[in-house]
Amino acid sequence: MKIMYCHKCGAQIKEGSIFCHKCGAKVANGDIQPQDLKTTTGRTKQEEESVGKSVYESYAASVQVAMPTEGNVDYGTDFKAFVDNHVQQTTKFQSAEELLDSRVSQKFIWICFGIPAIVGFLAGGPLIALLFGLFFGYPAALLTDFMKGSRVRGAIKKISGKIDSDELIQFLNEHLSYLSPYFHEWSYINYSGTGVQGAVTAHTLNSITASAAKVGTGFGQKQRCFVVIWIEPDGEVPDSNGMKYYFSTAMKFPWPSKYICMVKTTPILQATMEYYLKYSGIEGGNGNVLS
Length: 291
What we know:
By secondary structure, this protein is α+β, with helices and mostly antiparallel strands.
């Protein structure tokens, strides 16, 4: 086992890591490996850390990596602070944890179910009210939830570089694990169905979206919905290496919860993707928002 140190922030990283767990920088082939623990004898842990620190300091002085800072927090090397800063700028909350723990109003559901139920009650009593609420209110709530969720999910973003989806999955699992149990293990998402009709439908949808990488995770303690990052080639520019990405949700059960999911996750995913692109050296990492 070797002790390795990030060439950007100096944090000790695990051997075999692709990204630094602290600053998110991609691990370079030349990242510092000051000591091989199998051949080290007679040194205390403090002495080994001292050796690693001195080697890092001499290396860092030569590369002089500049990162944006604000106050006493270096948003270029602290992923959590970077995400929290974005949450503060785009919501009324102070941190990602506070946003995820918040309650999101769903008054529109009561309105969608309530108006038909009142009309039904006036027309024929409690039974008609129940039937009207289910027959008219349920689809209205689903449609309203879909429209509201689509508005808050953020714009499609374009970049001129390539996104390695395998690498992105590892980055998401390493950096968003602190927000468990809201975010779970990230992996590729594909459509699936039960029965012949469901299987045929799933196969058709997977074929239609074959050019897109769908990276997602279950959201919430009960994982009633999935958060998905779509990564696609930019088809608007022929023969281009450009890509675009955007966020969406998929429901396990047909119930209006897309809006809640998007409100709580969009600011965090926006900051995460911005951080990943910017500090992974991907060309065009700042992205262009489509109008």
